[in-house]
Structures are given as C-alpha cells and as structure tokens.
Amino acid sequence: MATTNDLKNGMTLDLDGELWNVVEFQHVKPGKGPAFVRTKLKHVLTGKVVDKTFNAGVKVDVATVDKRTMQYLYREGDSFVFMDTETYDQYHIPAQTVGDAANFLLENAEAVVALHEGTPLYVELPAAVELTITYTEPGVQGDRSTGGTKPATLETGAQIQVPLFITTGEKVKVDTRTGEYLGRANS
Fold it and tell me: What are this entry's molecular-function GO terms?
C-alpha cells in the first residue's frame, strides 16, 4: 500500500483488480481547496491510456511486477516459448501478449518479460535490433538522389521501409518500437 504522494513514473498500480502503469503524474496544490494528483495511466494489457485524478494522500495498491530477462526459444502454435535465463523455466506466452514484438523476435534472442503473480503481462525488446533483409527490389539507377524508400522483408517476415541503396542480404538496424529503419548494422 502506498499513497498518491509516492507515485513515480513507471510504477504499476492495481486499481479495481486491473493493472495500470503510471505514464506521468503531477502533484497539484491549488490556491483554494485540497491538493490532488493528476495522473496519466496506461492499462498494462490493452494499452489504453486514461487520465485519472486522485486526492492527495489517498492509498493505492502497488502491484509487484517482476521483469525478467528471458530467451525466446521457438513458436508453438499460437504461443511463443520463452526460457528464464536464471531458472531455466519455460513460459508459453500467447501471441496477443507478445504483440508487435513478434515482428522482431528471432530464435535465441533475449527479451524482458514482465510477470505479475507468474502471469506474463508484456514483452519488451531492446530499442533496436539487427536483422537481415531477405528480400527487397533492386534500387533503380536514377532514383538514388531522391532519398526515397522501398519495401523490404526481414528475416522474421516483417515488412519495413528501407532506403533505395539497401540490397537483399544486408543486415540493418530496426527500431522495435516504431518498426523504422535506423541504418546499416555494424558488422
């Protein structure tokens, strides 16, 4: 149990049996009336963002979320199998929990899995990953100066936009949050 005065960004709260991450908060002390805390909360499972105001000093439940480094092993039907790198326990995580991270997951890649009471909540990948281009159209000779882009398929099957000079077989850096091309990988 904590009070609204103890809130910090990134904290996970248990409100009415649902888990919410504190995205931002602001303690407000108006000239007239009691102080209050204005927060922006993000639902852990759905990603829905809401604004919620608490009176200052109100008790809130803080959920314990355990973030563990795990290794992605393989995909089995509708779930992804991860192994805890410390205990070697295997977790079958549903595809909807993995979400967009599935587009950038390679076998044996490490990711951070957030667990609440043994239940996986979400999967966090590093900000950027290096992946190989498996297919892209060759760049047209006259198009190089325009700075245009073309679609490319990654080894995970995901499609991204890359500059015209990138060819099949090259390793590129991709932002896992936006799916954007960041540059060639340093090999």
Answer: translation elongation factor activity
